[in-house]
Design goal:
2 helices; about 170 residues; mainly beta; about 5% helix; Elongation Factor Tu (Ef-tu), domain 3; about 45% strand; SH3 type barrels; 7-stranded antiparallel beta sheet; 6-stranded mixed beta sheet
């Protein structure tokens, strides 16, 4: 499992005093401010987060070391990470996206279907992006109990019952 988990991203500046629009990827969006300093992917910068409001689909936050709009704008698109150990353990049948990436996927008969390369959510539900063994395009599998009845974290494998014709 990944040592770092992406918990949010900076969507740009908010106002002229260095606040940012912060997209939270946590189950409870406000929880992003409770995990301690958040780091950039390369670990070169970290920020203490103070939530100051909400706008549209984002939180408004003040990040330590960000004094003005220009500095905040320069961080647009920056993903923010936290050590996996600082996150609460997920409940049964809940998973961190970072933990699913890299898992092998098999059908109910044990035949390999591929490997999870990403997890997407475009609003309706999660989709597992699976690289098939023979290469080529990836397949998007709905991450539902019907299509994915088993996720075995100990063995790092997923058993899928994909819709007819998907693979």
């Amino acid at each position: 499992m990944s040592a770092q988990v992406c918990v949010g991203a900076i969507a740009g500046a908010f106002g002229v005093r260095g606040e940012v629009r912060l997209k939270s990827f946590t189950a409870e969006p406000e929880a992003i401010a409770t995990y301690g300093p958040l780091a950039t992917e390369d670990g070169k910068r970290s920020f203490d987060v103070t939530l100051t409001g909400q706008t549209g689909n984002a939180l408004v936050a003040r990040l330590s070391g960000i004094p003005d709009k220009e500095t905040a704008d320069a961080l647009r698109g920056t993903r923010l990470y936290v050590d996996r150990a600082r996150l609460p353990e997920p409940d049964e049948d809940e998973f961190y996206h970072a933990d699913l990436i890299g898992m092998d996927v098999f059908d109910a008969g044990g035949a390999p279907l591929g490997k999870v390369t990403a997890v997407h959510n475009h609003g309706a539900s999660d989709l597992l992006e699976i690289a098939v063994p023979q290469g080529g395009e990836t397949v998007l599998l709905p991450f539902t109990h019907e299509a994915v009845p088993t996720v075995d974290m100990a063995l790092r494998r997923i058993v899928a019952d994909p819709p007819e014709g998907l693979f």
